[in-house]
Specification:
Helix content of chain A: 55-70%
Largest interface: A-B, 43 and 58 residues
Radius of gyration of chain A: 14 Å
CATH architecture of the largest domain in chain B: Orthogonal Bundle
Number of helices of chain B: 9
Radius of gyration of chain B: 23 Å
Number of strands of chain A: 0
Low-confidence stretches of chain B: none
Distance between the termini of chain B: 39 Å
Distance between the termini of chain A: 31 Å
CATH superfamily of the largest domain in chain B: RNA polymerase sigma factor, region 2, helix turn helix motif
Strand content of chain A: under 5%
Structural class of chain A: mainly alpha
Order of helices and strands of chain A: HHHHH
Number of domains of chain A: 1
Structural class of chain B: mainly alpha
CATH class of the largest domain in chain B: Mainly Alpha
Largest sheet of chain B: none
Oligomer: heterodimer
Strand content of chain B: under 5%
Shape of chain B: elongated
Mean pLDDT of chain A: 89
């Protein structure tokens, strides 16, 4: 279990992001293009509104975003 | 390249010319070549084996990123997770190939399936055999070891209102999902599997519960503007 003892942080998790957000399915559909725009230095949030807020509300999608960004930005050695 | 046999693809391998909706003009040469070989008539096995190799690299990357959280797993166990993730991602990529629109490089598009499968498997592994906390004592929410965090009057009133709204305004299902995901940190894939539903459906429930809480709080004069969770 993840301990979230700070009540303010816990409250932020309970209430979620205040900005409009997409759902997990839409996030997955747009994730590849979003990450490529980020790496190109283009405003990905303007092209895909609602994704950044979703990352704030959904730890799983945020993790997958961070992993894809790390993977293709480093073209990592395996 | 892995010597393990590829997963059974009977019935899931896209037929030749699958992905034909994807524009080939404007694609980078590598993506064009992936589409060409995966759509090719005849023996596509070498191309599918290369795709599996690509997906396995991505799955191993994800496992390596998270292995510190799985100190109790041996290297063989972790690689087994990566192998199964690559197998499942291969099936997904081939099944979804007609949906590839060429908005990104093919490899970026394919990688996300491998990362998804690997991360879901790791999350499920970490919660294997554990009981999910679905029915908490709402009144114990927002308790802190540090009294200074919860003693501020303006915060205490807000926290009290949230506790009451969770108990009184949410449906039992919304309450269980909210508490499990947002308070107890149960991974959404783990909860989806236990409740026999999908990640998308669960997030919709979470989102609806959050919106209801925010709306009720604002009706009662509370500000719900705060920094997003970390």
């Amino acid at each position: 279990m993840t301990e979230r003892r700070d009540p303010h942080d816990q409250l932020a998790h309970v209430l979620g992001p205040s900005a409009p957000e997409v759902g997990c399915d839409a996030c997955f559909e747009q994730l590849d293009r979003y990450v490529e725009l980020e790496l190109a230095g283009i405003d990905a949030d303007a092209s895909f509104p609602g994704l950044r807020a979703h990352f704030a509300g959904c730890p799983a999608c945020r993790e997958e975003h961070d992993s894809l960004l790390a993977l293709i930005s480093g073209d990592a050695p395996f | 390249m892995s010597t393990r046999p590829l997963p059974t693809l009977e019935g899931v391998t896209s037929p030749p010319h699958a992905g034909a909706r994807a524009p080939t003009t404007g694609l980078d040469p590598e993506s064009r070549e992936w589409l060409r070989c995966l759509r090719a008539d005849g023996d596509r096995d070498p191309c599918i084996a290369r795709l599996h190799h690509l997906l396995l690299r991505a799955a191993r990357f994800e496992v390596a990123r998270r292995k510190a959280s799985f100190a109790y797993l041996r290297g063989d166990d972790l690689d087994d997770i990566a192998q199964h993730a690559a197998d499942d991602a291969l099936v997904s990529v081939l099944r979804r190939l007609p949906d590839f629109r060429g908005d990104s490089r093919f490899t970026t598009w394919a990688y996300k399936f491998a990362l998804l499968e690997a991360s879901v498997k790791l999350r499920k592994r970490s919660w294997q055999g554990r009981e999910l906390p679905l029915e908490p004592d709402v009144w114990s929410l927002f308790a802190s070891d540090d009294p200074s965090l919860s003693d501020a009057a303006e915060q205490a009133e807000l926290l009290s209102a949230v506790r009451r709204l969770i108990a009184e305004e949410l449906t039992p299902h919304q309450r269980s999902v909210l508490i499990a995901l947002a308070v107890n940190g149960v991974p959404i894939d783990v909860l989806a599997a236990r409740l026999n539903t999908t990640r998308g459906a669960l997030y919709k429930t979470l989102h609806d519960a959050r919106r209801k809480l925010r709306a009720r709080l604002e009706q009662q004069g509370f500000s719900t503007q705060m920094e997003d969770a970390t």
